[in-house]
């Protein structure tokens, strides 16, 4: 039975409040939690290759190191890129029981012996999970390692009981050509009844450019003014065309030109969830319409999903609702390039690649054709470099074929090549070679999509800006297709969401930004940051930050008066507008679009019953 002593709880808390490594070490030595892992001997680490990774992809060795207490470290080398960050990993099994609800404290030291070239850092996936259910980890965080040794503390709650050896710590190092050293791995678990988790120390992560006076901020503000605004000139006249001074003007923005989108839950949107609440559904729709001008469907619009009558029925209703909210619809991942996502009948025929090739073509053509006019943009593929066994089976030339088929079947839709691990990983060169080759062959690609998914430690803002600059060399508009952040650090999520959204909005090549988790319920349950809205419809702190940017700082709503010449001029955000004017019993109004070239409009005052006109 595990015991937690109140006096030692206070001792750990006091030591951790000092914020120094030495005091954290003292807290560790003074704690009474059960020792679940004591990794003093890296030779006991197990190096695992999976998802098709072989000896040519990576290796592990033990090196002598004076700077760590154990005197040695596990060196993990990625020699050739495998499919996933966890495809190459070191595994350390537990040596004691863990009880459900335990508060656990993981400690280790890490350094980048050879950082990967593109970022100048190395990335490590840290997981704690049960051995028999690896898909639902208790802890999952992606961090960056620097060339010097860094001590890391992480905490989590065990979701169920596991006997000794039935849980494990994982350090994943795949997908990037890098060398990582890991040492002094240890973990203790405590009875959570005394509030242990809140008292345990946890390393605070940050990112370069977070400071309020970081130089990139001034550049971003300048670029927002330059690229996201336009000049508006309003002239007010009477019925004879003479200027009217001192007329009351109201310049109201109604919609952004820039695409702000959210991944929607089709069932929630149409009100067919198991826990349906009409008030919550109404709030979901109202906030979706207010904050966004585009709705992105995730797996609902894959060709395999569209072929299922029950899924299709709900999706059709959701598309109708999207239209009624005056949002454009985006289809994410028309084709999943993972063979596991094929219908069962096709998975049974993997030995017949020709048959599967034709079935996928028919599915792509049918889905895109039946939805022509309903989908503004198709992310034809998604996460290609993570899941490509289908293309390995039927041939990589099919990628170009799918784009051509969608263009023919849905000529009114934009075609997006969307990929992951570009902004926070090292797949830029692979993307450039693949997309560049397709474009040189005349394959229709209208947009480059990058999944903006980040972990506990985001890359520096300058690195992200450099990545966007590199992507701009394709001479195609860019869209962030599914922004998400896996972190339990609320302040970090709030700051990074604000900063990355600002960076994207300021970049001249970026034309869209799609949030993956608008409403609670999307994404995994563990260590995920807040969505914009909780399940009951209440807004979160990060939701308030998003609203402030979209509907306040980057929104135009002006009350003014015409000058002596009957004119008013202003720099305004690009988008759709209603411009109205009134003087006495006379008025006029018009709707217009304002783009980068700006707009000029003349409003002639008339009796109110003559109404509004459009430009």
Notes on the structure:
The chain is an alpha/beta fold. It has an eight-stranded parallel barrel, surrounded by four helices. Strand 18, helix 13 (428-440) and strand 19 form a beta-alpha-beta unit. The chain is globular.
Secondary-structure blueprint:
Layout (H helix, E strand, L loop, with lengths): L5 H12 L3 H10 L3 E6 L6 E4 L8 E7 L7 E7 L9 E6 L9 E12 L7 E9 L8 E7 L4 E8 L9 E6 L6 E12 L5 H4 L16 H12 L1 E9 L10 E9 L2 E6 L1 H5 L7 H14 L2 E4 L5 H4 L2 H16 L3 E8 L8 H4 L5 H18 L6 E5 L7 H6 L2 H13 L4 E6 L8 H13 L6 E4 L2 E2 L6 H11 L6 E8 L4 H17 L3 E6 L25 H13 L3 E5 L5 E7 L1 E9 L2 E9 L4 E6 L1 E2 L4 E3 L1
Parallel strand pairs: 12-27, 14-15, 14-22, 15-16, 16-17, 17-18, 18-19, 19-21, 20-21, 21-22, 26-29
Antiparallel strand pairs: 1-11, 2-5, 3-4, 4-11, 5-10, 6-9, 6-11, 7-8, 7-10, 12-24, 13-23, 13-25, 25-26, 26-28
Helix pairs in contact: 1-2, 4-15, 10-12, 14-15, 15-16
How would you summarize this macromolecular structure in one to three sentences?
The protein is an alpha/beta fold and 615 residues long.
Which geometry do the CA atoms define? globular
Helix/strand-derived class? alpha/beta
Uncertain regions spanning at least 5 consecutive residues? 1-20, 522-527
Q: Strand portion, in percent?
A: 25-35%
- Main β-sheet: number of strands, strand sense, barrel status? 8 strands, parallel, barrel
Provide the gyration radius in Å: 28 Å
Overall average pLDDT = 89
């Amino acid at each position: 039975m595990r015991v937690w002593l109140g006096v030692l709880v206070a001792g750990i808390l006091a030591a951790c409040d000092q914020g120094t490594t030495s005091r954290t070490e003292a807290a560790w030595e003074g704690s009474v939690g059960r020792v679940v892992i004591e990794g003093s001997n890296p030779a006991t680490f197990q190096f695992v290759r999976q998802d098709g990774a072989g000896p040519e992809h990576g290796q592990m060795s033990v090196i002598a190191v004076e700077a760590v207490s154990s005197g040695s470290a596990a060196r993990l080398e990625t020699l050739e890129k495998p499919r996933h960050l966890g495809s190459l990993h070191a595994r350390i099994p537990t040596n004691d029981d863990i009880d459900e609800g335990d508060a656990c404290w993981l400690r280790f030291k890490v350094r980048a012996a050879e950082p990967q070239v593109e970022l100048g850092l190395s990335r490590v996936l840290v997981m704690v999970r049960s051995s028999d259910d690896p898909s639902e980890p208790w802890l999952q965080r992606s961090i960056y390692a620097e060339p010097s040794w860094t001590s890391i503390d992480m905490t989590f709650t065990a979701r169920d009981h596991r006997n000794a050896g039935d849980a494990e710590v994982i350090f994943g190092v795949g997908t990037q050509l890098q060398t990582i050293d890991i040492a002094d791995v240890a973990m203790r678990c405590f009875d959570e009844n005394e509030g242990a988790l809140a008292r345990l120390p946890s390393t605070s992560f940050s990112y370069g450019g977070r400071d309020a006076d970081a130089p990139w901020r001034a550049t971003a503000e300048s670029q927002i003014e330059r690229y996201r605004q336009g000049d508006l000139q309003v002239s007010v006249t009477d019925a004879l065309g003479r200027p009217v001074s001192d007329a009351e003007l109201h310049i109201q923005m109604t919609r952004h030109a820039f695409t702000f989108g959210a991944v929607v839950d089709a069932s929630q949107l149409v009100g067919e969830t198991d826990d349906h609440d009409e008030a919550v559904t109404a709030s979901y729709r109202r906030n979706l319409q207010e904050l966004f001008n585009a709705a992105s469907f995730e797996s609902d619009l894959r060709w395999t999903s569209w072929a299922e009558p029950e899924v299709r029925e709900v999706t059709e209703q959701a598309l109708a609702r999207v239209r009624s909210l005056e949002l454009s619809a985006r289809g994410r991942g028309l084709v999943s390039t993972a063979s596991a996502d094929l219908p069962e009948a096709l998975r049974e025929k993997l030995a017949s690649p020709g048959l599967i090739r034709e079935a996928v073509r028919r599915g792509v053509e049918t889905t895109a054709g039946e939805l022509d006019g309903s989908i503004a943009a198709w992310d034809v593929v998604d996460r290609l470099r993570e899941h490509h066994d289908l293309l390995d089976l039927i041939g990589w030339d099919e990628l170009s074929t799918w784009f051509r088929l969608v263009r023919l079947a849905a000529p009114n839709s934009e075609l997006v090549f969307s990929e992951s691990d570009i902004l926070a990983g090292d797949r830029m060169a692979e993307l450039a070679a693949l997309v560049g080759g397709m474009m040189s062959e005349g394959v229709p690609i209208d947009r480059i999509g990058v999944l903006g998914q980040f972990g506990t430690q985001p890359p520096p803002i300058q690195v992200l800006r450099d990545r966007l600059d590199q992507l701009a060399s394709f001479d195609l508009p860019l869209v962030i297709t599914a922004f998400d952040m896996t972190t339990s650090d609320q302040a970090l999520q709030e700051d990074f969401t604000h900063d990355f959204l600002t960076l994207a909005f300021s970049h001249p090549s970026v034309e869209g930004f799609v949030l993956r988790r608008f409403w609670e319920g999307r994404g995994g349950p563990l260590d995920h940051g807040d969505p914009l809205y909780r399940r009951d419809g209440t807004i979160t702190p990060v939701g308030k930050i998003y609203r402030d940017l979209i509907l306040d700082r980057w929104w135009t709503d002006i009350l003014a008066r015409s000058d002596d010449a009957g004119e008013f001029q202003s720099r305004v955000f690009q988008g759709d507008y209603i411009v109205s004017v009134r003087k006495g019993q006379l008025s006029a109004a018009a709707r217009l679009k304002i783009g980068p070239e700006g707009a000029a409009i003349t409003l002639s005052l008339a009796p109110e019953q003559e109404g509004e006109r459009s430009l």
